[in-house]
Structures are given as structure tokens and as C-alpha cells.
Specification:
The chain is α/β, with parallel strands linked by helices. It is 46% helix and 19% strand. It folds into five domains: 66 residues; 101 residues, Beta-Lactamase (2-Layer Sandwich); 174 residues, Histidine kinase-like ATPase, C-terminal domain (Heat Shock Protein 90); 114 residues, Rossmann fold; 149 residues, 3-Layer(aba) Sandwich (Rossmann fold). Strands 6, 7, 8, 9, 10, 11 and 12 form a seven-stranded mixed β-sheet that branches. Helix 7 crosses helix 19. The termini are far apart. Bound molecules: adenosine-5'-diphosphate (ADP). The site of adenosine-5'-diphosphate has 22 residues, from helix 8 and helix 10.
Length: 740
């Protein structure tokens, strides 16, 4: 090879080596850079980690100090808790799941009087042993082993019942044990010695109070019996005396004797009822009864008084409300008697209106659907001042002012009524306009015993237009409402003369008996003479002798006034367009049977009824009563309860059996007469098959009301021509406990 070639080759080799060197150098630099970057990152990380470690260390320090504080707090709380537990008077101990004592306070330990073995670690069974062996507990007749076993069983049950133990010194301790989830037991030992002593004292006091209250009740019962019996003689004889020929002065004396006797009885009855309610001795006897009839019977009883004062007594019984309800008829009558009696007593002119409305409550009891009844007694009397209204329901509260000082009464009537209504779960209220009148209302929920029979309200098709002849606006308005509800078109007029001009507008005439000018009977006769043979219904208060009037033959039907729905509907149904104005079939007299062993009482009874158009027979004991019931076939029986041989209850039971055997469904009313006034008797008497309950002394008006109410169709009106059927005082509250 030439030199030049060698040089060239050498140059090329050197150049290549230089390029390689350059490249390696570049690679070395790159590696160095990377290394530097890593080193930086590493050092950053180290700084960070160091900071974190510092933070954690700080936290650790803080937690440690917190823990110390918390520990201190726990210790303080524990100390305080234990201090409290030590301080309380009752025993307190903890046991672990193995029934070993963990701790107990002083009170708990003090029972063991320093017995050293009773300390933390002792077992429950050992404690029971100490209690019995050391005689700490008084276990009475129980064997110590049996007692311990019983106590241990109790202790081991999941939820031990509290147990009262008695210590040797008479202390009573109530043990209450509470088992926790982990098996620990907390045991409380309460010293209840004072409570037990107090309880004993209370029991003793109650026993004494009850004995006193029983003594009081039986004293009242005896007193009522003892006073009633002679009172029967006083009031009855005074009434008889007044039926004899007397000078005016003598009559005044006799009247005063009777009135005072009756007033005294009202007071006795009120006080008796009141104390019975207070002693919670009064029970309600619920049974089916006819509310409408009860209202009408009370109206009849008050009628003589109202008539004397010239007051109209009105009844507005909702045409579509059932009449048969379940309640305590005697007590409901007592409430109504009180409200209605007050209304008559405190009213000088105008009227007293009893309104009964009701709606279904939607509730159904075992006895039937329930109706909410509203019974209001409205009067146009003296009224009660607003500030006095709240007081009238209180005991012995009377509105005392110059205006009503002349009215007598005990001031107990409304308070008894309120208590009775409360017992029935109802409400009683008053609204009054001083000087214009008062309205007393009661609301009662009563089960319906028998729903209304729509047949009863159906009238003959031919009847469409009725003419009412009635001067009294209130009477007229109520009758008009009733007839319109029955679907009649009604025209009203106020006198007989006016009626005669309007007969063309009517298919039937309903006229009041006693009207000024032309009275009802005269109107009937005048219509007949003028050739109008329209059906004619006479509304008569029942004492005007309508049945005996020669013009009776022009009258289609006589309805007792105020008209009951059943009376009115029956009369309306009995008339058709062609109803002949013929004389009615000859009526017989009502047959009344009275069983009474006492001769004087028989005399009083017969004299009281001597003016009535009835046939009266007496039985002298129960046997005779049963025999006469069959041979005489009475329409009503009055039955004395205590009679020699067969008593009244037994006789009534036999009569009911005779009726049941005859199978024709007849049920002759039997009215009990008795001097007993306590409730037990009443329930027994009614259970024996008697329908009502009269307490002696019997009053003429009450007896007559019972007879009239029992009058069957086709019999002569027993009251007939007798304008006066006897006066009663308004306060009838206790004299009649009827369960019609
Ligand atoms: P008594 O009628 O025996 O006095 P009550 O408790 O029945 O007792 O009545 C309390 C009082 O309420 C009556 O004395 C009378 O002042 C007043 N009072 C009751 N009803 C009426 C009424 N209808 N009109 C005016 N005042 C009445």
C-alpha cells in the first residue's frame, strides 16, 4: 500500500475514533443528568417523610396527654358515683356473672352489722346463708332451706320480680334486681318500712270509713222505710179527708197536711238518692223502655198542676224517631220529672214544651244501633240570670232572690239529675233568657231496642188534606209539623167558627176539645148538622168527659192531648173517607185488680179510685191475686210486695207463667207497691216479672196515670167526667220509680 493510502486510512480511523468518543461522551452526559435528577427527587422525598414523621409524633404526644386527662375525669366520675351510691339511704350492690359481690354501699352492708365475711368476693348463696343463719331476716314459718332455694331461684331468673323481705327488727326491704347483658347484676334494697306502715294506716282508715258509710247507707235505708210507712197513712188519709164534707178552714188544714207530707217525701227521696250516688251505691238498671210513653206519662202527671196555672204542656216527639230504647227508665223518668217539674214550677204563664229529637250515631252495640237523643224542656218562666246558671247544677243551690224565694225545693234535683246523666255518659246543659224562660237539655246515647215500624206511619191513601182547629199557636205548630211529616197537606185555623167556613179544603178535621166560643164537641155537632160527614179527630186532655158527651157520636176518634205519635197515627189510620159517623161499639169499663193485705191501705186505695169509671177488685194475698187474675181478667194489677203467705213477687211470677202458657202474647201490666226504697229491692221486684215500681205512699194521680196508660182499646176512659184527677206537687222525683 502506498503511503498516501496508509495516511488516508489512518485519518479515517482517527476520525471514526473521534466520533465514537464524542458519542460516548454525549451518552455519559445524559446519564449524569438523569442521575442528578434522581438525586434531587430522593432528597425531596426525604424532606417530606421527615415532616410527616414529625406530625405523627406530635399527635402521639397530644393523644397521650388527652388520655391522661380522660383518665382523671373517669376517676373523678367514678369517685363521685360511688360517693353518691354510698350516700343514698337505700342498699346498693353489684354482682358479677358468677354471682360474686363486686361492691356494695354502706346501707347495703349495714344490714349485716359488720359481719366480716360479707365483703367483695362473697357469693350470693353465702349471703342468703348469713341472712338465715344469723337470724337477720324474718322468714316467718318458712323453712330456711326452702326460703334460700326460693330466693336463689328468683335471683337466677332472667328478670327477677321485686321481692319484699322483713328483717328481724321489723324493717321492710324491697329487693329489686336488674341483670345486665354480660351477666352482672345490680341489686337495690329499698327500705319501704314507712310506706308499708302508711299503707296499713290507710287500709285501716278505709276499712273504718267503709264501715261508717255502710252504717250510714243502712241507716238511710231504714229511715226511708220507717218514714214512708207512716207517711203513707198521713198523706193517704189527708187525701181521703179532703173528699169528705169539710169547712173551708178544715179543707185548708187537710190540704196543708197532705202538701207538707208530700214535700217531706220529696226531700227524703232527694237526700236518699243523693247519698246513694255519692256512696257509689246507685246502679243503673238498663232495659228496653218506651221513651215517648214515659214523656207522655210525666206530662199527664204534671197536667193538673199546669192546668191550675193555665200553662199548656206540649210534647214534640220527632215523628221518625224510634220510641223503644234501652236505658234505665226509672232514672231517665227521674231526670225528666225534675226538669219538667221545675219548668212548671218556675213558669207562671205560657207553656212548657218537651222536645225529643235524635239521630243515629252510626255505632252498634250488642243491644242494637245507638241513637244520640236530645231531650229539651223549654219553658216561658222566670229564667235564670247568666251568673247563676253554672250554679244550678250544684248541691243545695237555688237561685236565691226576691223573685223565686217563694218556690220551695231542696236544691238537689238538678244536681242529682246531672250526676245521673253523667253516669249514663251523657250531657246536661241550660240555656236561659232571664225573664223570658229557660231551656234545660240532656243528650244521651241510647241503643235502640226496636226500630221504628214504617207501617205505623202509613196513612190511608184517601187522606191528603187535614184541617187543624186549634187556638193555641204552639200546639197548632207542633201538630202541623207532625201531620206534614206524615205527608199530609195541612191548613190551620184557630176557632170552630172559622173551621166551618173552610171544610171544603179538608179530608179530615183535627180539633182541640176546649176552645173558647165553640168547643170541639160543638164543632163536631155543627158539622154534622150542616151535613159535613168528614172524619173528625178530637184532641182532648183526657179529663173533659169527651166519652160521655152526647156529641161523641159525631167524633171519629178521641186522641189524648198532647198527642203521642202512636195515638195520633192510630186515630188517623182508623179514619177512612167513608168512615161513618156512627156511634162506636159500646165500651166496657176497665178492670183493675189490687192485691193488698192491709185493710187500711185497701180502704185508702178504693177511696182514691172511687171516682173512676172502672171495675175494682181486691185480693188480700198473693194466692187470691193469682186466682182473681184468672177469673176477673184484669187490665192492670197493683201488687203489694210484702203479703203473708204468697208475696207479691211470687204472685207476679205465677201470673207471668199463666200468661206464657196461654201463648197469646198478652202481658198485663203489674205495678209493684212497696215501702222499700233501696235499689236491691227494685232489681229483685222487676226481675220477678213486675213492670213498674211505685213506692208508698201512693198518690192518686200516680195510680190514675198508671191505669190510664194501661187502658186497652174498647174501654171507657176511666177518668171520664172527673175534671180533677187529683193534684200532685211538681217534685215527683222520688215517688215513682217506674220501669215501664
Ligand atoms: P229545687 O227545684 O228543689 O230548688 P233544683 O236543683 O231542681 O232544686 O233547682 C235548683 C235551682 O235552679 C232552683 O231552685 C231554681 O232557682 C233554678 N231553676 C231550676 N229550673 C228552673 C227553671 N226552669 N226556671 C228557672 N229557674 C230554675
Amino acid at each position: 500500500m502506498s503511503l498516501a493510502n496508509k495516511l488516508a486510512e489512518e485519518r479515517r480511523a482517527r476520525l471514526a475514533a473521534e466520533r465514537l468518543l464524542e458519542q460516548k461522551q454525549a451518552e455519559l452526559q445524559a446519564a449524569n443528568r438523569k442521575l442528578g435528577k434522581h438525586a434531587r427527587q430522593l432528597s425531596d422525598q426525604i424532606v417530606e417523610t421527615r415532616a410527616e414523621v414529625e406530625t405523627v409524633r406530635d399527635e402521639n404526644r397530644r393523644v397521650k396527654s388527652d388520655l391522661t386527662v380522660a383518665n382523671q375525669k373517669v376517676q373523678i366520675a367514678e369517685r363521685r358515683l360511688w360517693h353518691s351510691i354510698q350516700t343514698i339511704q337505700d342498699g346498693f350492690a353489684f354482682f358479677d356473672a358468677d354471682s360474686r359481690m363486686i361492691a356494695a354501699n354502706h346501707a347495703w352492708l349495714s344490714v349485716f352489722e359488720g359481719l366480716e365475711s360479707v365483703r367483695p368476693g362473697v357469693s350470693y348463696i353465702e349471703i342468703l346463708q348469713f341472712l338465715t343463719e344469723e337470724g337477720i331476716v324474718n322468714i316467718g314459718d318458712e323453712a330456711p332451706a326452702a326460703w334460700r332455694e326460693r330466693m336463689l331461684d328468683r335471683w337466677q331468673s332472667p328478670n327477677p320480680d321485686p321481692e319484699v323481705i322483713r328483717l328481724w327488727n321489723g324493717t321492710y326491704i324491697k329487693l329489686i334486681d336488674q341483670r345486665g347483658h354480660d351477666g352482672d347484676v345490680v341489686n337495690l334494697a329499698l327500705n319501704i318500712t314507712d310506706t308499708i306502715r302508711h299503707e296499713k294506716e290507710l287500709n285501716e282508715a278505709r276499712r273504718r270509713a267503709e264501715a261508717a258509710s255502710r252504717a250510714k247507707s243502712s241507716f238511710l235505708a231504714n229511715m226511708s222505710h220507717e218514714i214512708r210507712t207512716p207517711m203513707n197513712g198521713v198523706v193517704g188519709m189527708a187525701e181521703l179527708l179532703m173528699d169528705t164534707a169539710l169547712t173551708d178552714e178544715q179543707r185548708l188544714y187537710a190540704d196543708t197536711i197532705r202538701n207538707s207530707g208530700e214535700a217531706l217525701l220529696v226531700i227524703i227521696n232527694d237526700v236518699l238518692d243523693y247519698s246513694k250516688i255519692e256512696a257509689e251505691k246507685l246502679v243503673l238498671n238498663n232495659e228496653p223502655f218506651d221513651l215517648e210513653r214515659a214523656v207522655h206519662e210525666l206530662v199527664m202527671l204534671l197536667q193538673p198542676n199546669a192546668r191550675d196555672k193555665g200553662l199548656a204542656l206540649l210534647v214534640d216527639y220527632d215523628m221518625f224517631l224510634p220510641t223503644q230504647f234501652i236505658g234505665d227508665p226509672g232514672r231517665i223518668r227521674q231526670i225528666l220529672t225534675n226538669l219538667m217539674g221545675n219548668a212548671v214550677k218556675f213558669t207562671e204563664t205560657g207553656h212548657v214544651l218537651v222536645r225529643v229529637v235524635g239521630v243515629p250515631t252510626g255505632q252498634t252495640t250488642g243491644a242494637g244501633d245507638t241513637a244520640r237523643l236530645h231531650i229539651t224542656v223549654h219553658d216561658t218562666g222566670i229564667g235564670i240570670a247568666p251568673e247563676k246558671r253554672a250554679h244550678v247544677f250544684g248541691e243545695f243551690n237555688q237561685v236565691e232572690d226576691a223573685k223565686n224565694r217563694k218556690f220551695e225545693g231542696t236544691g238537689l234535683g238538678l244536681s242529682i239529675s246531672r250526676k245521673l246523666v253523667d253516669m249514663m255518659g251523657g250531657d246536661i246543659w241550660i240555656e236561659s233568657d232571664e225573664g223570658c224562660g229557660s231551656t234545660f237539655g240532656i243528650a244521651l246515647d241510647l241503643p235502640v231496642a226496636e226500630p221504628l215500624d214504617p207501617e205505623q206511619l202509613r196513612l190511608p191513601e184517601e187522606l191528603a188534606r187535614a184541617l187543624i182547629v186549634e187556638p193555641h199557636a204552639e200546639h197548632s205548630a207542633i201538630l202541623e209539623k207532625q201531620l206534614m211529616k206524615l205527608g199530609l197537606e195541612v191548613t190551620t185555623c184557630t176557632s170552630g167558627a172559622e173551621a166551618l167556613t173552610r171544610l171544603a179544603e179538608a179530608d179530615l178535621v183535627l180539633a182541640d176539645h176546649h176552645m173558647p166560643g165553640m168547643d170541639g164537641m160543638e164543632l163536631a155537632e155543627a158539622m154534622h148538622e150542616a151535613g159535613h160527614d168528614l172524619p173528625f179527630i178530637l184532641l182532648s186532655p183526657g179529663s173533659g168527659g169527651a166519652e160521655q158527651d152526647p156529641a161523641r157520636r159525631f167524633v171519629t176518634a178521641v186522641v189524648q192531648k198532647p198527642a203521642s205519635r202512636s195515638g195520633l197515627c192510630a186515630a188517623l189510620r182508623s179514619v177512612g173517607p167513608r168512615a161513618p159517623a156512627a156511634p162506636p161499639a159500646p165500651a166496657r169499663r176497665m178492670r183493675v185488680l189490687a192485691a193488698e193485705d192491709n185493710r187500711t191501705n185497701r180502704l185508702v186505695f178504693s177511696k182514691m179510685l172511687k171516682a173512676l169509671e172502672i171495675e175494682l177488685e181486691f185480693a188480700e194475698d198473693g194466692m187470691q191475686a193469682v186466682a182473681l187474675f184468672q177469673s176477673f181478667a184484669p187490665d192492670i194489677v197493683f201488687m203489694d210486695i210484702s203479703m203473708p203467705g204468697m208475696d207479691g213477687k211470687e204472685a207476679a211470677t205465677q201470673i207471668r207463667e199463666i200468661e206464657a202458657q196461654s201463648g197469646d202474647g198478652t202481658h198485663v201490666p203489674i205495678v209493684a207497691m212497696t215501702a222499700h226504697a233501696m235499689d236491691g229491692d227494685e232489681a229483685e221486684i222487676l226481675a220477678a216479672g213486675l213492670d213498674r215500681y211505685l213506692t208508698k205512699p201512693l198518690r192518686k194521680a200516680t195510680i190514675i196515670a198508671q191505669i190510664t196508660a194501661a187502658r186497652p182499646e174498647g174501654t171507657v176512659d176511666p177518668v171520664g167526667d172527673q175534671a180533677s184527677v187529683g193534684r200532685t206537687k211538681t217534685g215527683l222525683s222520688g215517688s215513682e220509680r217506674s220501669a215501664s
